[in-house]
Amino acid sequence: MKSIPLIFAWLVWLAQSSNENGQYLAISPADDNSPAWSPDGKHIVFESNRDGNEEIYLMRADGSEPRRLTNHAASEPWPSFSPEGKRIAFTSNRDGNLEIYAMQRDGSKPTRLTNEAARDLWPMWSPDGRKIAFARFVEARKYDICVLLLRNAP
Ligand SMILES: [Ca+2]
Ligand SMILES: [Ca+2]
User: Fold this and answer.
1) Domain 30-149 is classified in which CATH homologous superfamily?
2) Ligand 1 centroid to 77 CA: how many Å?
């Protein structure tokens, strides 16, 4: 039997296991984290360093068709879908400081939403699409929860 080239191995590695709480699918052995569902349940947005640098990816819920949405030397963790599924909020230090950004679901038009010296991270969209809650680092072991009111919300 021919061995599977490593570059494709993660695409076909779909382990299924179960315990008393249900079944889980381990979709990829790469260093992937920060998963979030699209509102229609068809996709999962997540963070991965599979290309050597933390970026945001979108894949179908079965792990197929992964697509990189960001391409920047900075770290880009914690993506979150807007409730209508058209935009994705995320965290990035691409401007030298952790800030909240949003982009279209195809990765286009990344826009910075915060501009504070404090570290701003972990955005979560409100169900009405008009606000984003996030955490702001204040000092060691202390974060605040902040809410951003979006100007161009639906
Ligand atoms: Ca990056
Ligand atoms: Ca900041």
Assistant:
1) TolB, C-terminal domain (2.120.10.30)
2) 9
Quickly tell me which residue has 């639906």 as its tokens.
154
Q: Which ligand is nearest to the CA of 120?
A: 2
**Which residue type, as a one-letter code, is found at position 103?**
M
* DSSP3 helix / strand / coil % (the chain, rounded to 5): 5, 45, 50
Q: What is the CA(104)–ligand 2 centre distance, in A?
A: 21
**Residue 131 C-alpha to ligand 1 middle, in angstroms?**
25
pTM of the model: 0.83
C-alpha dihedral over 66, 28, 102, 93, to 10 degrees?
A: -120
- Residues forming beta bridges with residue 139, ordered by sequence position: 142
Domain residues of the chain, as ranges? 30-149
> Would you call 133 exposed, middle or buried from its count of C-beta atoms within 10 A (0-12, 13-18, 19+)?
middle
Are the CB atoms for 63 and 12 separated by under 8 Å?
Answer: no
Ligand 2 centre to CA of 97 (Å) is 5
Low-confidence residues of the chain: pLDDT under 50:
1-13
What is the three-class DSSP state of 122? Answer: strand
